[in-house]
UniProtKB/TrEMBL annotation:
Organism (species): Allopontixanthobacter confluentis
Oligomeric and partner information: Monomer.
The name this protein goes by in its record: 3-hydroxyacyl-CoA dehydrogenase
CDD domains xref list: crotonase-like
Family per record: Belongs to the enoyl-CoA hydratase/isomerase family.
Length: 683
């Protein structure tokens, strides 16, 4: 018998066991209605003497996937989750969480407050709050260490990544793995077996003593993860909370958790990371295309060019189980390309990121060719050839004559005009840009460049395919550099201008590193190679880069570029580079002066925001948050500031405009209008 209790929560009675069921699509988020229903269901179950055990489960794709993030930042409405969970845990009737899908955040905390947890093999459990700039706020940081120990709890709470049901069983977070298709029945049977036994409560566990016996684990964890945690507030709070679980009585520990949680909730980092959570999902949506537009079936992919980009692109499809044919002009280039792919997979397998059989399957899906005719039956062909318009037009004309009608023809160009390339074919509707970022098998970002004539089904198919191959895709219009590289260019210009005016190049890099970037522009140049696009004539020196190349300063690969590098590739500013720059500055007659860190930061980042405003005004990006997604995933913009547009909102558009004017830099009409109106780019 099923009785609706409250909105998304119903109950089902199975003799002496009551099953409380949540049905709150899409992910059973613990919104107010769910919390109220859950509280009521638990209260009724505990008050009814004929009920001797309780099972909590969810309909749909997953067990509770956490608090409802859309409620954050709004006035809280009861009942609050911790109180509901405390009541439930205090019961002497066994309560069993029946887990499928992803029990995350508050969902995992509901499970922790249950006396037992059973899960299907495919289930995952985790506490991803740190990815939202938070820590668990319903006693997860206090119950988990008491159940599994501080050492096992740290990676879950501080890292935020979910673990499999099998891993959860191994650490004691799950009590039993049940049948994939018999979760409810097995959970009920398991619950019945516990009737009459004393109920185990995570909050009364003593596994957390490991953190007291060996307090070094916290500093060791901090040191081991130093780079990853750098700049983020939440992970440090998470470590403090787990440590407190060993030092304080439970109730005190919960208070400490609440204090840390509220401090983070009110901070800009969590606002930024919650913004990013929804921004990444919004980027999947193409506002002017019907979601039910029929898709093109992509069963076979052709890639032209087996170089670094072509090989990396191929791996994305091979790893997703999609057959690939790589085309090159010479057998030697093909052999080199396929050998690189095999080596990359070998490294991935060595790191345990892929099983040998998965690598075998991926490589088994790879074929090679020297003949365009072998691409005739491809559903998608991506060219990754030399970045030259004439070459690309020639390739597309050839593809147009060989590849079957209805196939998508994509260019991996990083800034060339996709419309011009499309005009080299008789099917411009099937042409678009798929701009992968190097290394293409690692970098998550994909810019999908929508041509003036790109068909809706071609665009939507590419967006869905991006998700299938594990990319985070953003739609861009056709403009030089699309979204990311277009905004990189004004930052580069200012960096080069400032070293002529007296700023040291390492100071510029350090300002961006302090802001949270993994490296600055001059380090990036050394990493990529200062000789990209160099004419190779050491006697022809017209700028700093050509001077560096003429001096053999090709970057990290040469042991010297802007910087000198030691064997471990750590950088030291170079006197030779300094004098090369001074020489050019002298020739330009630039006024030399010390430039403050604040001025460096403003002149590097404010012009990027202005360029982002132009991109929005021209309709080259669908929404400001898409620009944030590009820069966080493609260029290492620090996630805890939310991306360039959210960051601009945080400091205020008026401040940006005043800064640009102070430095004599252009202010777009769109930016000025938004600033004058007191508006934000992002919601
Ligand atoms: N709240 C609100 N909406 C959510 C949501 C959530 N927790 N999780 C997902 N959605 C929406 C999402 O915006 C999208 O909406 C749709 O569901 C499908 O999501 C108290 C304080 C569960 C692994 O961080 O990791 O609990 O775009 O596209 O790829 O201590 O969603 O369709 O309109 O991502 O299959 C902790 C976040 C919260 C989990 C599914 N929980 N979600 O991935 O689908 S804080 C999380 C996810 C908390 C407690 C603390 C993933 C997923 P739309 P999707 P998916």
């Amino acid at each position: 018998m099923t009785s609706p209790i409250f909105g998304p929560i119903t109950t089902q009675r199975h003799d002496n066991v009551l099953v409380i069921i949540s049905n709150n699509p899409p992910v059973n988020a613990l919104g107010q209605a769910v919390r109220a229903g859950l509280a009521q269901g638990i209260e009724e179950a505990l008050a009814d003497d004929s009920i001797e055990a309780v099972v909590i489960r969810c309909d749909g794709r997953t067990f509770f996937a956490g608090a409802d993030i859309t409620e954050f930042g709004k006035p809280p409405v009861g009942p609050n989750l911790p109180e509901t969970l405390d009541k439930m845990e205090a019961s002497n009737k066994p309560v069993v969480a029946a887990i499928h899908g992803t029990a995350l955040g508050g969902g995992c905390e509901v499970a922790l407050a249950c006396h037992y947890r059973v899960a299907v093999p495919s289930a995952k459990l985790g506490l991803p709050e740190v990815k939202l700039g938070l820590i668990p706020g319903a006693a997860g940081t206090q119950r988990l260490p008491r159940l599994v120990g501080a050492e096992a709890a740290l990676p879950l709470v501080v890292g935020g990544n979910p673990i499999s049901a099998k891993q959860a069983l191994a650490i004691g977070l799950v009590d039993k793995i049940v049948g994939e298709d018999s979760l409810e029945a097995d959970a009920i049977a398991f619950a019945r077996e516990q009737i009459g036994k004393p109920v185990p409560r995570s909050s009364e566990g003593t596994a957390n003593r490991d953190g007291v016996r060996n307090p070094a684990i916290f500093d060791e964890f901090r040191q081991k993860n130093g780079r990853k945690l750098h700049g983020f507030d939440a992970p440090q709070a998470a470590i403090a909370a787990v440590k407190a679980a060993g030092e304080l009585p439970y109730a005190e520990g919960v208070k400490k958790e609440r204090e840390l949680f509220m401090g983070l909730m009110g901070g800009t980092q969590s606002a930024a990371m919650r913004h990013y959570f929804f921004a990444e999902r919004a980027a999947n949506k193409i506002d002017d295309i019907l979601a039910d537009t029929p898709l093109i079936d992509i069963r076979k992919v052709g890639i032209i060019g087996a170089g670094t980009m072509g090989g990396g692109i191929a791996m994305n499809f091979l790893s997703a189980g999609i057959p690939v044919t790589i085309l090159e002009m010479q057998q030697e280039a093909l052999d080199r390309g396929t050998a690189t792919i095999a080596k990359n997979y070998d490294n991935t397998a060595k790191k345990g990121r892929m099983k040998p059989e998965q690598v075998q399957q991926a490589m088994g899906n790879l074929s090679t060719s020297l003949d365009y005719a072998d691409l005739a039956d491809c559903d998608l062909v991506i060219e990754a050839v030399f970045e030259n318009m004439d070459v690309k037009k020639e390739v597309f004309a050839k593809l147009d004559s060989v590849v079957k009608q209805g196939a998508i023809l994509a260019s991996n160009t990083s800034y060339l005009n996709v419309d011009e390339i499309a005009q080299a074919t008789t099917r411009p509707g099937y042409v678009l840009g798929l701009h992968f970022f190097s290394p293409a098998n690692i970098m998550k970002l994909l810019e999908i460049v929508r041509g003036a004539e790109t068909r809706d089904d071609v665009l939507l198919t590419s967006m869905k395919l991006a998700k299938k191959i594990g990319k985070i895709a953003v739609v861009s219009g056709v403009c030089p550099g699309f979204i990311g590289n277009r905004m990189l260019s004004p930052r580069q210009q200012q960096a080069n201008a400032m070293i002529m005016e007296g700023a040291n190049y390492w100071e510029i890099d350090d300002v961006l590193i302090d802001f949270g970037f993994p490296m600055g522009p001059f380090q990036m140049a050394d990493l990529a190679g200062t000789d990209i696009g160099w004419h190779r004539d050491p006697t022809r020196i017209e700028n700093v880069r050509e001077a560096l190349c003429a001096a053999g300063r090709f970057g990290q690969k040469a042991g010297k570029g802007y910087y000198d590098y030691d064997a471990s590739r750590s950088r030291t500013p170079s006197e030779e580079t300094k004098s090369i720059i001074a020489d050019f500055a002298g020739r330009e007659g630039a006024q030399q002066r010390a430039i403050s860190k604040q001025e460096i930061l403003e002149r590097l980042l404010y012009p990027m925001v202005n360029e982002g405003a132009l991109i929005l005004d021209e309709g080259m990006a669908q929404r400001a948050s898409d620009i944030d997604v590009v820069w966080i995933n493609g260029y290492g913009w620090p996630l805890y500031t939310g991306g360039p547009m959210f960051w601009a909102d945080t400091i205020g558009l008026k401040t940006i405009v005043e800064g640009l004017e102070k430095h004599g830099l252009p202010v777009s009409d769109y930016l000025r209008r938004k600033a004058d109106a007191g508006e934000r780019f992002t919601s």
